[in-house]
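input
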Amino acid sequence: MKTPIKTLVVAVVIIGTTALGARAQDKAKVSVEIDPATFVFNGYGVHLRLQPKNSAHLLVGIGAYAMDFPDLLVDLNENNKDQGWQVRLNQGIGFFAEYHFNQVNKGWFVGGQAGVQTYKIEQDFIEGDAKYTNLLIMGHGGYSFKPFNNGLYIKPWAGIGYTRKISGENSLGGKEYDIAPVTMFATLHIGYTF
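output
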């Protein structure tokens, strides 16, 4: 198992254990979310959320995610369109905070994410790969609904953010993979509150 993944697993176990203990003592609520789209694109997306005691609207958490970028996402940047780039988000770790206008995981919400993401890029006509790490700051919003009378919820959301390379290389064989400073993302999370 790679070191960043080991670190994440340990962090999630520690936070989860602490959060579950806090739930019993402080009546905080814990949720686990997945992002099914990341699994479709050869990755994963797992998030642990905590609703603090006596907070009807605030949700905070940590998440880990990875995926291969489909051509559609790569081609959103005109400078990379049809250039033969293969892009993998190898590891993303993000910290999240959300404000739910009605109640947590029910109705409209807005939030923010701060994260670090490591990418691997390849080019169809050049041997090898390159890796770089970026910082992501993103605002997002969406709508969460509960299809059943239990802890299950579905949360579609979209966001726009700022990203900046902080280390590594984003070029191969003299060709540069363009990292746009503004990024957009939309997905759907499925979660359960315990």
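quick obs: The CA atoms of residues 121 and 194 lie 38 Å apart.
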